[in-house]
Amino acid sequence: MRLTLLLSVLALFAAQAAAQVFDPVEFYGAAHFKAGESGAGALSATLKGRDLPPWLDLTSSGDGRANTRFLATDTGLLLQPNREHMSCESALDLGASRATLRINITELGKGARLSWHLRGLPHDDATPAEYLAELHFPKEGAAVLRLRVRGQQRFLEMPGASCELPGLELPQVLTVSFDGAELSAALAGKTVKGRAALPAGARLGVAASDGRARISDLAAEIAAFSPAWAQDAAVRMEARKALLRLREYAAMGLLSGVAAAAHPQQEACLAACSEAQRKAREQAIALAPSSRAARLRELAEQLPASSLAQHEAGVAALLAGHLNSALELLQRAHEAHGCALTDLALAECLRRLGRTNDADAALARARTRMTPQLQPECALLGARLQAAQGDLAGARAALAAAQQSYPRHQQLAAFADSARALCEGDALPASPEPGPLGLTVLSDLEPDALKTLLDALRPYLDKFELWLPQLKGRKLEGVLALFSGPVDYLNTALLAAGDNVDNVAGMYLQAGIGALPTVLACRAFGEDELLRTLVHELWHLCFAAAGKGATAPRWLNEGMAVYLSAGVLVQNTLHFDRLPAEFAAMQGELSRALTPEVLARAQAAGAAEFYLPADVRENYAAAWALVWYHATSDSGANELRKLLAGDAAAAERVRGGAAALAPKLDKSVGALVK
Questions:
Q1: How many domains does the chain have?
Q2: E strands in 75-143
Q3: Sign (positive or negative) of CA dihedral 243, 248, 250, 253
Q4: Other C-beta atoms within 10 Å of 92: how many?
Q5: Which pLDDT does position 233 carry in this prediction?
C-alpha cells in the first residue's frame, strides 16, 4: 500500500489557497483558548512554572553581554531589564481589532514600569501607531497609571490620560481595553482613557523597563481578531502542519515500496520462529515507528541468523531515524541473505548518512538482482543520490525517464515535478526589485512586502562584509527565490529537502535554478522566520562565493550562519544577546551540548557527520556557541576572523582549547534566554 502524504499535503493547500480559515483553538491549543458564544473567545495562561505557552515570545531591547532577563518561576514570570531605559517584553502571537487584556502584577521595583504594549498593525501607507498602558512606581509609596503614545523619538504621555495611585500595594490586575478608536486602562478602581488610531488592530505584548517586574495570570478576551493577522496566522499554521506531513512523507513515503515488499526469506524465517516470536513480531509491526524499531531490534537480537528479523528491524530503525542502528541491522541482514530489497534499504540508509559512494555501490548491487516490483524504488533512489551529489540536472533527467516508465508511481511524479521546478525556477516570476548582493530575485510576494524584506536584510549583509571583507563591492552570481505560500515552495523544495525537513523554511543549493547558487525561502512560516532563514542561507551562499564553503570546518560555516541570523535590530544596531530561536526548546538541555566531548565532536564533524540525526541539534548548538563566544570579545573576534580567512593555526588553537572553554561557554550561554 503506497503512501500519498505529499500529494495530500499539496491537495490540502490547493483547496485552501483561496481562503485560509483561522482556528484559534487549534492555533493556541484548547488548554489556552476557549471559544466564546458571541465573539472570538478568551486566551489565557498562568505564566507560573517552567513551561511557558509557545505563543508567548520573550524578546529584549537590552544591549551588551547576555544577562538573564526572563525567569520562569512558580510564582510568575520575572522580567529583568538589564539597563536603565532598556526594556524586555513578552510578546503575544496575537493580533486583535477589539479586546480586553488583563495581567496580574505581583512585583514591581522602585522606579520600574510595567505596560501592556500595543503595536498598530499596518494600514494603508500610514505609520502604525504604538501605545503603552503603563503602571509606574516613580518613588516609594507612589504609583502612576497612564497611557503613552510613541512620538518621533520616544513615548509621550497622552493628555488627560494619567492618574496617581498613592499607597498602592501589589498584587494588582492591570486591565486594558481597546478598539480602533479608543484605549483605556484600569487598575485598583481607577481608569484612564484616550483616543487611539488602531484601524487595523494591534499586536500585543507585556513590557517591563527600568526595573524588575513579576507577572502572572495573563488573560485576553478577544472580541475580534485582526483579519490580516488572522489570515497570516492561518497560513503559518497550515505551513507548520505541512512540515509535519512532509517530514512523515520523507521518513516513510520514500521507503513505502521497500517497507511494503515481502522479504524473499519471509516464509522460511517465520517457520523457524516460535509462536511467541511470531506474535511479538505482529505486535511490534502495529506500533508507532520508534516503539516498533525498539521491539523489532529486541527480536533481531533473539534471532541473529534470521535475515528477515535483521531486515525488518533495520527498516524500522531507518523509518524511525535511527540511522546507525539501521546500518548495523541491514548489514547483518545482507550478510545473512543478500537480496535487492535489503540492498535498497541499505542504499537509502547510506544516502541519509551522507555516504553517497557506498550508497551507489549498494544500489548497483541491488540492480543485479532487481525484481519488477522494486524497479521504481530503485529509479527514485538513484535520482535522489544524483541530487545529493549535486547533479540536479542528471537527477531531473533520471526522474523524468522513470516517470514515463512508471506513470502511476506517485513519489516519482512528485520528485520529477520538484526537479523540474528546481532546475527551471518556473514556479515564480522574475522581480524587478534589485536583489541583495547582486542576486537575481524570483518572487510572488507583493511588491511592498518584498521591498520591506530586502531592506530588512541590509544590516545583516553589512555584517557579512565585516567578517568576509573580500566580498566588499562584489556582485554575486546566483538566484534568490522567495515564495509567498507553501504549495509551490514545498513542491519545489522536495528533492533538495528530502528527509532533512526539520527546518526547511529555506535552503541553500550550490547549483540550483539555472545551475546557479540558489537560496529558496518561504514566507508562510512567518515574517521573523523568513528573515532569520534568509540571513542563514545567504551566509552559506556568501561563504561559498568567498571560496571558503568547501574547505572551512562545517561547524564554523553553520555556527556563523546561526549566529548572524539570531541578530536583533534595535535602533539601527544589530545585537546578538539572545538565544537563537532554533534552540528555544533546548533551553534546559544546552549544557549537554557544551561538554568538551560534544564540542570536540562538532568541530571534527565533516559534511556528512555534522548532520547525523542523533547529533545534529547538539552540533548546531555547539557550533553557534563557539562562534558567539568568540564573536562577542575583541580577542575572540580576531581569532574568528583568522578562522574565516582559513588560518590553520587558529583552527588548531580553537580545537585544542575546547576542553578549557566548555565551562566558560556553559556559564555564558546559560545566561541567555529566547
A1: 3
A2: 76-79, 87-108, 113-120, 130-136
A3: negative
A4: 23
A5: 85
| Residues 581-639 pLDDT 10s | 777 666 556 767 788 888 889 999 888 788 877 788 889 988 988 898 888 888 888 98
CB 556 within 8 A of CB 604: no
Does residue 245 contact residue 9 with C-beta atoms inside 8 Å? yes
Residues 560 and 665 in one domain: yes
Is residue 531 situated within a structural domain?
Answer: yes
What pLDDT sits at residue 163?
95
H or E element in which residue 551 lies: none
pLDDT in tens, 500-526: 544 567 889 888 898 999 999 988 777
Which residue type is seen at 651? Answer: A
Q: How far apart are CA 447 and CA 426, in angstroms?
A: 19
> How much is the pLDDT for 405?
93
User: What is the per-residue burial (b if ≥16 Cβ within 10 Å, else e) of 175-196?
Assistant: bbbbbbeebbbbbbeeebebeb
114, 108 contact by CB (below 8 A): yes
What pLDDT, in 10s, does the model give residues 266-275?
999 999 999 9
- Quick one: 466 and 342 in the same domain? no
> How far apart, in Å, do the first and last CA atoms of the chain sit?
44
- Residue 586 burial class via C-beta count within 10 angstroms: exposed 0-12, middle 13-18, buried 19 and up: middle
Provide CB contacts within 8 A for 367, sequence distance 6+: 340, 378
Q: For 568, list phi and psi in degrees, rounded to 5.
A: -120, 125
pTM above 0.85, yes or no: no
Do 216 and 251 fall within a single domain? no
Please report, for the chain, how many H helices and E strands are present, in that order: 23, 21
CATH code: domain of residue 58 = 2.60.120.200
DSSP assignment letter at 121: P
User: For residue 261, how far is the Cα from the chain centroid?
Assistant: 35
* Confidence at residue 66, expressed as pLDDT on a 0 to 100 scale: 32
**CA–CA distance, 131 with 182 (Å, rounded to integer):** 11
Which position has the grid cell 500595594? 169
Whether residue 327 is predicted with pLDDT greater than 70 in this model: the reply is: yes
How far is residue 395's CA from residue 146's CA, in Å, rounded to a whole number? 64
